[in-house]
Prior knowledge:
The chain is mainly alpha-helical. The protein contains five helices and no strands. It has helices spanning 6-32, 42-65, 69-92, 98-114, 117-124. Helix 1 (6-32) packs antiparallel against helix 2, helix 2 (42-65) crosses helix 3 and helix 3 packs antiparallel against helix 4 (98-114). Pfam families: DUF7144.
Amino acid sequence: MATRPAGVTLVAVIVWIQGLFTLIGGVVSLAVSPAQGSLSGGFAVAGIVSIVLGVVTIAVGVGLLRGSGVARVLTTIVLVLSLANAAYAIVANPASVVTPIISAALAVIGLILLYTGRANDYFRR
């Protein structure tokens, strides 16, 4: 049985942290929503969506730690979308390229770490 490579662990922890922040953001949006006058407003909808996305993201991070191929595919899709978004941001606003370049670099690093030889062995087990 292949042991989990450090790169997969790193990507999983980053995914898990992102999910936690998304979940916290959703809870904060719901907390702010009553102050806006109603739970049916935009803050409430954004809060509920963020909570669901946060929970799913945390589950994907746990899946990566457990060697789930589905979690690997979902993470790959998100990283590829992040790359596409970064490319669009660079073209759409050439004056502000630092953040999209960093985002693209992190996505590429994440993809590389998920598809090294050791990572491939880990996800095939």
